[in-house]
Structure formats: structure tokens, C-alpha cells
Amino acid sequence: MSWPAAAMHRVIKAYDVRGLVGDEIDEALVTDVGAAFARLMRSDSSQAARQVVIGHDMRDSSPALAAAFAAGVTGQGLDVVRIGLASTDQLYFASGLLDCPGAMFTASHNPAAYNGIKMCRAGAKPVGADTGLEAIRDDLISGAPGSEKYAGTPGTVADRDVLDDYGVFLRSLVDTSELRPLRVAVDAGNGMAGHTAPAVFGAIDSITLFPLYFKLDGSFPNHEANPLDPANLVDLQAFVRETRADIGLAFDGDADRCFVVDERGNPVSPSTVTGLVAARELSREIGATVIHNVITSRAVPELVTERGGTPLRSRVRTTPYIKALMADTGAIFGGEHSAHYYFRDFWGADSGMLAALYVLAALGEQRRPLSELTADYQRYESSGEINFTVADASSCVDAVLKHFGGRIHSIDHLDGVTVDLGDDSWFNLRSSNTEPLLRLNVEARSVEDVDAVVQQVSAQIAAQSALEKAVP
Questions:
Q1: In whole angstroms, what is the distance from residue 15 CA to residue 337 CA?
Q2: Is 231 exposed, middle or buried (0-12, 13-18, 19+ CB in 10 A)?
Q3: How far is CA 442 from the centre of its chain?
Q4: Is there a catalytic annotation at residue 108?
Q5: Per the residue annotation, which of 87, 95, 108, 351 is the catalytic one?
Q6: Whole-prediction pTM
Q7: pLDDT digit of tens for each residue in the chain (472 aa)?
Q8: What ranges make up the beta strands (E) of 181-298?
Q9: 207 with 198: CB under 8 angstroms?
């Protein structure tokens, strides 16, 4: 059958399929997505697939949708390997281990009513808009022959538990044999880290794990599984202080992002984590490339250069873009301010759990507390991301640039506008791809300098928005 173009453009996004279950995504659609994905993978001239690995998160809708996808895949003659409950990076591990395409059913940090599909080629290679999703979308809109019309023999379905293998593989990448005893608090947010954290950390004798919200529950009864929002870190911060933990780790719903809290309960910037992990990676391969995005602290490229590496600046995340950039450049590591961390040794894919192991290793190999250790990687103050609801983003950006005028030292347009004010102060202003928002990030040497830039940019956006409302 064919699907309405408007609906497909709404659900099939730049790097995944995502929408409201029942209203935008149901089993019938997912079956056809599975069939289209199988056709795409079977026709891949570089490596025609014979099987597809499928995992899913803890949402109530995930098992049925994963089964529907499997039916679409097997109906096209490909076999299915089901790994069951999994984090997204566990699915990437299975794709690398089995050298086959994969599909992960999750809506990450979105509320319980949502679900989606993250897909990859063999070896966890990305499937994004330019690398398969547009072809799948066009297939569904045009009504290409469905699975019931495939003339060959249907594929088979088998189950395989890869959780222990996943834990063993991650621990093989980071030496944790000489760590001092560490008290590690982990907030799983009722998401998939409640499933994977014990498998990864439980085998490390020096770690005492303090679990928070480990019960898998796709209704997210305690807080949203989105640690990027500071409100969702409050419970972990209190838990770290209560348990006297050496470190706190918070994961999002599908456990591919990791946020860090120090022993005082203070959040550690993902830019700081990026700098720390980059330094460790460069210690074993001097000269390697490290990717960072446009809103990552400038401390990161400075540190990479000082440690003999080559920093490479990228757009703000879409996962397929970063993963492709990792592959194209041979980068050893990539970090984003959204707490996605990419590793060459992990098929160029992102793994919050692997990043957590690197931080634990760095902490446990020396005696200082985390707050002192991470201070080595912090050189600037930042605003965090500030969002403005605007009707005309481009006119607001123009107003801001006009205001700063002669103070602008340099400007680039890699992702939105990044303005260097020439005094260790800079800001990035970029439009959201999905909402009528302008996103602002500011960095400077002092909190006062950051606040001054934020106030000026905010005033110009407010003035321009008011002007537009006043014009009939």
C-alpha cells in the first residue's frame, strides 16, 4: 500500500523514524518500514544483507512494534536476530558483532506516548536522510510492492542474548584493573541503563554501584529520561550527596547519552567530559583526529592541539552526520555538548556507557576527587543552551549581528552563526530544525562576560520580535 506523503515526511525524520504511537506510528506502518528497510539492505551493492538484528527499549509499545518490523523484514527474505531489551549502543554493538544491519525501537528521551526506529547498516554504519531514510520514505509513499508480494522464501527469526558480550567488549576497551574503590551512583531514569549498567559495571570489583530508578518503566514515573534538562538531574545530585558517591552518572531513555555529576552533586559539562576522554584517547595515538561540534567549549580544541591531536569542528548533532564524519576522517573520538560520545573502536558509533567507563578510569587511577580532576579541563564559563521562541529567525539573527557590528572579530556559518568577539568571548546562534526557536550558546572567561553577551543578544531578539508583532 502507499502512505500519505505529508504523514511520511512528518514521521520519517533526518536520522530516525519517530512519532506518536497510534496516531502517527502503528504496526501496519512499521511492517512496511521493515519491508522497505529490508529491500534497501538486500539491494546494497557494497554488502547485500542476509539478516537484520532488532532490539527494543522498555516502552509498552516497543515489543509489538519490533515484532511488526521483523515481519516486514522476514517477508522480504531476510532473517531476523532478536536481541530483545537493549540500549541503543547495545544494538550498535550487535550490528558490529554480527556484521549486519540493525533496527532499534526507541523514542529516546521523548515521553511515553512516542516511539520510533533508529536504523543502521552492517557495522553500525549510519542510516540517515541521505543514506537510506529518504529512500525508505519514497518507497512508502510510492507504494512499492509490499512484503506479501515478495516471491522468494521468507526469512527466519532467532533470538540471541548479547548483553554479557556487550559488557565484556566495553570493558576490553578501557583498563579498569587498577582502579581505587569507587562509589558510583547511577540514575537510569527508568530507562535502558537499568538493564545495561549492571552488566557493564557489575563485573568491576572496585566499583560499588548505587542504583537510582533502575526499574524499567516506559511511563517514566520519576522524571523524564532526558538529563539534558537540569530539572532531571536534581534527584541524582541529591542521591550523590546522600550516598557519598564519588561520581554520579545519568542516562537518557535509550542509554546512549551519559551525563556526569561530581562528588559535590555539581554537573560536569559534556565539553569537560569530551576534553577528558579526548586526552586519554590521544595518549595512545598522538596525532589522531578528534571531532567536536560548534557549541562545544573552545577548551576542547585547545586541549586536543596541546595533546598533539587534530581537532575537527562539526555541525551540531545529527548522529548519521557525525558517524559518517568519523568514518571519513578516521577520527579516534568525537564528543558533542549534548553528551553523545563517538568512538572509532566502537565502529564509529556513540556510546554513553563507554564514555562513562573512560571517566571512571580517569577518576579511579588517581586520588583526587572528580571536582578537582575535571577542573584540569575547564577553562571557560558558559551559558548553556538558551532557547527563544521567534516568528522570523533570520531577521532576529540579522538584528543581533547588526548590534555587535564592529565588535565582531570573525564569523562563520557552519551551523547557524558563530560570532567571535575577539576577547575570549563567542556565541553561536542557530535555528531549530523542528521548532520556531533560536538557540543561543555563549562562552567567555568569566560569568560576568557570559551574562553580558546573553543580555545583549536577548535584548536584540526581544526588540526585533516586538517590532515584527507591531507590523500588521
A1: 18
A2: exposed
A3: 22
A4: yes
A5: 108
A6: 0.94
A7: 799 999 999 999 888 999 999 999 999 999 999 999 999 998 876 677 799 999 999 999 999 999 999 999 999 999 999 999 999 999 999 999 999 999 999 999 889 999 999 999 999 998 988 889 999 999 999 986 554 467 789 999 999 999 999 999 999 999 999 999 999 999 999 999 999 999 999 999 999 999 999 999 999 999 999 998 999 999 999 999 999 999 999 999 999 999 999 999 999 999 999 999 999 999 999 999 999 999 999 999 999 999 999 999 998 866 778 888 999 999 999 999 889 999 999 999 999 999 999 999 999 999 999 999 999 999 999 998 999 999 999 999 999 999 999 999 999 999 999 999 988 999 999 998 667 889 999 999 999 999 999 999 999 999 999 987 876 6
A8: 182-187, 207-212, 247-251, 258-261, 267-268, 289-293
A9: no
Q: Which residues pair with 86 in a beta bridge?
A: none
DSSP, res 124: G
Burial class (CB in 10 A: 0-12, 13-18, 19+), 211: middle
Q: Cell numbers of 421, please?
A: 568577539
Of 326, 331, 348, the closest CA to residue 95 belongs to 348
Q: Report which of 125, 115, 23, 127 is spatially closest to residue 64, judged by C-alpha positions.
A: 115
Contact 112, 191 (CB under 8 A): no
Give buried/exposed letters for 42-62 (b at 16+ CB in 10 A, else e).
Answer: beeeeeebebbbbbbbbbebb
Q: How far apart are CA 21 and CA 130, in angstroms?
A: 25
